[in-house]
Amino acid sequence: MKHLIAVCAAVLFSTISYGQLQVSASSGLAIGSATMKLGERVNASSTENSYGSYGEGINFQIRGTYFFDDSFGADLSIGYLKGTDQDVSIVNLPSTEVNAVARARAFGASASVVYKFTNNIYGRFGALLKLGGKTEGVIYQKSVFSEAEAEAFGVPNGSYSETNYKEDFHGHFPLGFVGAFGYKYDLDSNFSLFAEVEYYGISLKRKDSEIAEFNTDVKLPDGTVAVSGLYTIDNLPEGINKTTTYVDELSNTNTDTSRELSQKVPYSSFGINFGITYKFARAIKE
């Protein structure tokens, strides 16, 4: 037992003696990977599928890495993704216009193993978690009144309703994969610059959504507002629910429109990051 304790202590002392901590900050641009159908684009002559991933966009990361020896280390990071707009519903018809997009606003974290192939080239891979945030839907809809509707509102033919609203979608906490290869260039004994290519493999199952903003105005053919705030967040039109819950199963006799079947949406991406690293002095100098 004493011999085992002595060996463990020697290994621990050796690890601490080498141990080196470094912190990094980076930003990068990601494009969608493993894209899925997110919506449709419709006009008078055709309908086109819209494909994408909510992982596309600009990301910011702060990372801490601890190397146990010349090659192996452990990495913890937190990041923020500002996703680009993805087309969900684009409609351009004589009586109806819709422009509905959605984008990610998400916080995530990862835990990875790091391996240095050389002093300049490294790789890392590990688990990816989504900590919080939302997929934000931004919707614009214009609907031209029929003659009967225009007469009911007391407005001339060609008048229309214009609706703008935002809906925030939240998901269950997922587990994904992250992998990266990078190259670093030492500026001095403490600072270095790096560039890396990174892959995120993750999907998110929807949990619930909530309408955050809502407004409908009635406008005349020239765009003048005839009725302001016909519908608002406190006075939603019939059939529109402020909150929606997504479930895996619904009865065929279900009449509750605030419950819908869930779906998985993609957040996978390929990206390139650029950043700077600061290396602290080793715990015990050799």
TrEMBL record:
Against Gene3D superfamilies, the record matches this protein to:
2.40.160.20
Q: Which residues form the signal peptide?
A: 1-19
Instruction: Please name the InterPro entries in this protein's record.
Output: OMP/PagP_B-barrel (IPR011250)
* Signal listed as a keyword: yes
- Keywords on this record? Signal
> What is the protein name stated in its UniProt record?
Outer membrane protein beta-barrel domain-containing protein
Give the organism, scientific name.
Answer: Maribacter aquivivus
